[in-house]
Amino acid sequence: MSSFSNLQLAPSLARAVAEMGYESMTPIQAQAIPVVLAGQDVMGAAQTGTGKTAAFSLPLLQRMLRHENSSTSPARHPVRALVLLPTRELADQVAQQIKLYAKYTQLRSTVVFGGMDMKPQTLELKRGVEVLVATPGRLLDHIEAKNAVLNQVEYVVLDEADRMLDIGFLPDLQRILSYLPKQRTTLLFSATFSPEIKRLAGSYLQDPVTIEVARPNETASTVAQHFYSVSDDDKRRALRQVLNNNGLKQAFVFVNSKLGCARLARSLERDGLKTAALHGDKSQDERLKALDAFKRGEVDLLVCTDVAARGLDIKDVPAVFNFDVPFNAEDYVHRIGRTGRAGASGLAATFVSGSDQRLISDIEKLIKKKIELEAVEFEDERPRGRFNSGRRAWAEDDPRDVAESSSSSSASRDSGGRGGRGRPAAPPADPFFNKPYEPPVRAEDTPAASWEAAQSKSLRSVSANIKTKRKVAALFKSDEPVGHD
User: Is 27 exposed, middle or buried (0-12, 13-18, 19+ CB in 10 A)?
Assistant: First the structure.
């Protein structure tokens, strides 16, 4: 069963799937959809970008069609399927996909996540929805506010479960699951089957069917991986060079910190690249606008932290750059999974500095491949402008031209024309600078004025150790003596 036409989906779902251009199923879809249609729990692992959203959404919608109705009463539209995801962007993306799948049905869906006003979300929940997509924190807010009632949930999906555990959502997950009916179908999807994930599955899944369509942490074969040895100061230049060498128009650029993300985005913007930043300190509205601009092609480079490393499905992104080597080796797999999706080819370039050797070793162990560092061949980007050699010689374009300028300056003056490489002729020599050195004249060496010489005779009786004040000629002479009353 490799074609969606063989699934015998309801006409409303089949029509939506056809409009979205789905023809052949991916391995995770081919294995998971029949199991979910049979009502069994699933513990699934697959490479990122292999179509997990359709793998759980389509069979759940198919099973819930028996509940669809045209009633306007919220009571006729209780929450029957709950989809939990770790990040806001991923929740919004999955919710959009589910809306597309269900657009020809009467099943309602909505999404709730943090960083946004709760009032519009509350209104959506109050009018009734069958499919609720949420992040754990915001869902608990709605549960405590009694906006979300989950006592009729039949299906639960824990997507990117390993990421939810990594960022500390386990207590929230346990609280949420305690509100749900015991009898339900639970689907857990994770990139890795760590001991923590297995314990979670053992606690909340009943006889799950394990589906692994690829070795855990295996990178997609469609992604060409390159590791470049670059100093920290040359990373920006290397990024531009690789973009130019491969004729890339768009790419993700991953960094390790929010501050580094903001600074790099500003620097690349000054370099003339259309850039947007995506990190945790951005408001949710700013994050969604940045993603939307990137999807529409208005942004060349999306500089982001690992908040964008999981599950974001943006088609036809040709490349991913690891400007910083990730601290967690598993994040490397998720980062480069943003390219080479749905069978397309992609490029993953990682810039490795001297302090990254331990992180590179961790990645080697994870992907079980020997990493060979490559050198970036920079083009001869000679700086433009005029540079002073320190020898009264000016060169245009490059400091290396200074020596050439110095040697040819005399010829330029003789010819009266312009020197090599379009340099202007040197100005004529100023005779002031050719005069020999003359010491400055001191005040005591100047001859005394005649009026001073007459008075000096009357002062000869004064000791030579007493230095008299120098007299200054008055401009006006007064006949009256100056005295005190």
Answer: middle
Model pLDDT for residues 262-294, shown as the tens digit of each residue: 999 999 998 889 999 988 778 778 888 888 888
pLDDT value at position 389? 44
Gap between the Cα atoms of 482 and 476, Å rounded: 14
Distance of CA 391 to the CA centre of its chain: 45
User: Is the entire prediction scored with pTM above 0.90?
Assistant: no
Same domain, 47 and 120: yes
Position 298: which residue type?
Answer: E
Tell me which residue range forms the domain holding 394: 386-430
Q: Report the candidate in 89, 103, 106, 85 with the shortest Cα–Cα distance to residue 176.
A: 85
Please classify residue 157 by burial: count the beta carbons closer than 10 Å to its beta carbon, then call 0-12 exposed, 13-18 middle and 19+ buried: buried
Centre a 10 Å sphere on the Cβ of residue 45 and count the other Cβ atoms it contains: 23
pLDDT single digits (tens) 409-424: 444 444 444 444 444 5
Q: Could you tell me which of 196, 186, 193 has the C-alpha nearest to residue 213?
A: 193
Q: Which of 389, 384, 385 is nearest to 404 (CA)?
A: 389
Angstrom distance (rounded) from CA 112 to CA 126: 13
Residue 61: CATH number of its domain: 3.40.50.300
